[in-house]
Each structure stands twice: as structure tokens, then as C-alpha cells.
Amino acid sequence: MSSRIRLEDRECPLSTTVQHVGEWWTLLILHDAFDGYTRFDQFQQSLGISTSMLTARLKTLVADGLLERRPYQTNPVRHEYVLTGRGHSLRPVIVALAAWGNRHLAPQDRSMVLVDAETGQEADPVVVDARTGKSLDDSDAYVFTAGPAASGAMRARYAELERQRRSRSAEPEPGAA
Predict the structure, then answer these.
(1) C-beta of residue 104 within 8 angstroms of C-beta of residue 110
(2) Cβ 123 vs Cβ 103: under 8 Å
(3) Contact by Cβ (8 Å): 82, 29
(4) Would the pTM count as exceeding 0.85?
(5) CA separation for the pair 139, 42 (Å, rounded)
(6) Residue range 47-76, pLDDT digits in tens
(7) How far is the C-alpha of 151 from the C-alpha of 9, rounded, in Å?
(8) Backbone region of residue 8 per phi and psi (left: phi > 0; alpha: psi in -120 to 50; beta: other values)
(9) Whole-angstrom Cα distance, residue 154 to residue 12?
(10) How far lies 47's CA from each of 33, 44, 54, 55, 96, in Å?
(11) Beta strands in the chain (DSSP E)
């Protein structure tokens, strides 16, 4: 998958994250793992995925530290695939993706919803700033900027974007006199 990343994006956290979890089957395997599936046959039955594709995806998830391969039977040796801490930390991302999908469907067309396990009430997941509690969906209120490890090219990119934002905000509103 790394061949799809543009040279200038190699330091971008979004691009590197997509290397790990941006593949169709990977997200579905992780979703099943969050639902408690751990065994090869469970993933295969749930997803209808070929043996070779599932083997390849599981190997990648283990190599990336998202799943841990553990023996659960000795004769013959069989392994299960258990979420690691790193793998568990992706759950909010998967939940947010599912919620985004559901927001664009009529309620009667949703095949899966997130609910509070105790009350059964449907949850409405949002991504918020932990410090302020404000929703991060406003692209004007929350913007990306170069971080401490940014290259010169990355710094130039975000300096230009900031210049453009300031220029737009200095323009009078349409219809304003």
C-alpha cells in the first residue's frame, strides 16, 4: 500500500495511518475484532473473505502491532488474534466512520447502530477536543498546522494555508457594504 503515498505525504500522519488501516478488509477485520471475534474461522465466516486474503491481512495487522497472534490450542496448534492496546485505540475511529455512514442513511436503512450497552439508547458519536469539549467538525475553528518534526516543505505548506485563511477572513462578506 505504501506505493500509493505521494513522496511529499510520507511525513503526514494521515498518510502513514492509511498505510496501516486504509484497506477495506483491514477495517472490517478490526470491526469484527471490536465485536469480540478472535479466531480465523470467525473472521472468515463473518466477512466471507478468502483464506489467502484473510491470512495476508491478519499478518499485516500483527506486524503493525494492532493484533497479537496467540496460541489457543496445541494439538493441532491454532492461533487467535487479539487486539493490542494500539489496536483498541482505533475503536473511536471505526465508531466515527460508522456514525458518519449512518448519518447519511435514513434511520430505517441502517443495518448497525451504536448503543449504550446498559440502556440500549442509541449513541450519537462525535469527535471533540478533549480540552474544550468542542466538536472538531468545524474546519475554520480547528486547522492543521506544522508540528515540531515537520520538514521545510510541510512548514511551507501550512504557512501558505494560514496565509490563505487570513486573506479570506480579511475579505468583506458578500453583500456587506
Answers:
(1) no
(2) no
(3) no
(4) no
(5) 40
(6) 999 999 999 999 999 999 999 999 999 999
(7) 11
(8) alpha
(9) 8
(10) 12, 5, 9, 13, 21
(11) 67-74, 77-83
